[in-house]
Every structure is written in structure tokens, then in C-alpha cells.
Amino acid sequence: MCADPEGSGRLHWVRIDLNAPGIELYVTPLDPEALAAGWQYRLRWISDVVRSERLAVAINGTLFASEARWRPRIPGDFARGVETVVADHVVSHVWEHTYLLWFGDDLTPHLEMTKPPRREALSKAKWGIGGQGIGLRDGKLWAGLRTEPDSRTAVAIDGPRRLLFLAVGEDISPRLMLQRLAGFGARDGMLLDGGRSSAIAMGDHATGVPAGSLHGGWRPVATYFGIRVP
């Protein structure tokens, strides 16, 4: 990506054709030990998730809080997600400010335009990842998007064509990030957790790009959103 007042550095993006046979999604499931302790997840490195879950690509997910308050976060720390996620039909919780990107059993993508997620959507969702605001709707940018650059993570879809977009920018504004995704063909999209949490990593069988972390990965986080391919 060329230098711009709203950002510079690389923009890593992936377009997934959900019509392709064998495509599978991944969302971090609830952790039983964390639940027993009053939390939901354990923090993990993105590289460990990609390897252990055999993912082709993964990005960081929702905002989160963890038990580490006076020291750096480390893998294994208990954590709790802020926005709603759905992992294999299991809803983590319902947060009133969540906009939910969800997928049914047939992987058709839907981005809820109201918050919190509708009960009907939650009952049909097999997979889902939550964000706090819709910045791209029907191919048009929300006028209130911020223009300050930082590390960003975004998800977007073209629902009728069943296309999913994952993107991580090294130094980019929310407005420019979603503008670029619209230029790539996305119709509806939102940002996920950003800053030091932003990360994208490729699996060992990736072709045309190097395996491993492309950006970020130095901070363990609570939830990830990823893709498996045959």
C-alpha cells in the first residue's frame, strides 16, 4: 500500500469464496476450564492456533478482558470476550452493542445491521464473530469513520456472491481500510479488535505467500476467526 495521510505500510487481505467445496470456518470455542473459573477463554498465540487447528489463514477476533491487569498478558491467562461470538452453534454470550457477522450451516454469510443480534440469527448461526460498528454498508462507507491510522483488523462480505474478506493493515485508518475492502468487492463490513491485537497468519500449506505470521502475533488474544481448506 502506498503512503497516505490515513495510512502506510502493508495491507494483508484474503478473499474466500464460500461456494468452494470443502471450505470450513473456525471461531475460538469456549474453554471448559475457563468457564469453571468464571471466564470464557485462555489467551493463545495466533501461530499456535493456526498450527493446532490446521487453518489456512486466521485473524484476531473480538475485544477482550483478561485476568492479567498488572503484568503483560501471557498465553494461558483466562480471558473474557466483549462482543458475541458463535462457535459451532454455541453462543458465547449476548452483548447489547454487538453487530454480528454470522454464517449458517451452508456458510451463507449475513451481517446483522442492528444490535444486539436477533434471536433468529443466533438460533441459525453456526459460526459468528462480533464487532461494534458497521463501517461499510451496501458498498458505501459510513461518514463517521475515523481517519487516524493504526494497526487494524476487519471482516467484510459480499452476501449475494457468498464472498468473505479478511484484512489486517499495518498502519491504516478505519475509513481507508474499509474503502480498500470495498474496492476489492466487499459490500458490508466492520472492524474487529485492533492495535496491538491485530494479527494475521497463514498455515503451512499456503501457496503464493509465506507461512506463519504476516503481521502481529506478538500479543496472545482470546478469540480468533479462521478458515480451513481441503
Structure report:
With 230 residues, this protein is mainly beta. It has one domain (7-228). The chain is 13% helix and 38% strand. The chain has four helices and 19 strands. It has helices spanning 32-36, 46-52, 119-124, 174-184; strands spanning 7-17, 24-27, 41-42, 57-60, 64-66, 78-81, 85-87, 90-91, 99-103, 109-111, 127-131, 134-137, 140-141, 150-158, 163-172, 188-191, 200-202, 212-215, 224-228. The strands form four sheets. A six-stranded antiparallel sheet has the order 1-15-14-16-12-13, covered by helices on one side. The protein is globular and about 45 Å long. The two termini are 31 Å apart. The model has no long low-confidence stretch (mean pLDDT 94).
Q: Layout of SSEs?
A:
Blueprint: E1 7-17, E2 24-27, H1 32-36, E3 41-42, H2 46-52, E4 57-60, E5 64-66, E6 78-81, E7 85-87, E8 90-91, E9 99-103, E10 109-111, H3 119-124, E11 127-131, E12 134-137, E13 140-141, E14 150-158, E15 163-172, H4 174-184, E16 188-191, E17 200-202, E18 212-215, E19 224-228
Antiparallel strand pairs: 1-15, 2-19, 3-6, 4-17, 4-19, 5-6, 7-8, 7-11, 9-10, 9-11, 12-13, 12-16, 14-15, 14-16, 17-18
Largest sheet: 6 strands, antiparallel
Helix/strand/pairing category: mainly beta
What is the β-strand count?
A: 19
Share of residues in helices: 10-25%
Poorly predicted runs are none
The gross shape turns out to be: globular
**Tally of structural domains:** 1
**Tally of helical runs:** 4
Beta-strand residue percentage: 35-45%
The H-and-E topology, N to C, reads as EEHEHEEEEEEEHEEEEEHEEEE
C-alpha Rg (nearest Å): 16 Å
Mean pLDDT: 94
Strand ordering within the main sheet: 1-15-14-16-12-13
End-to-end gap? 31 Å
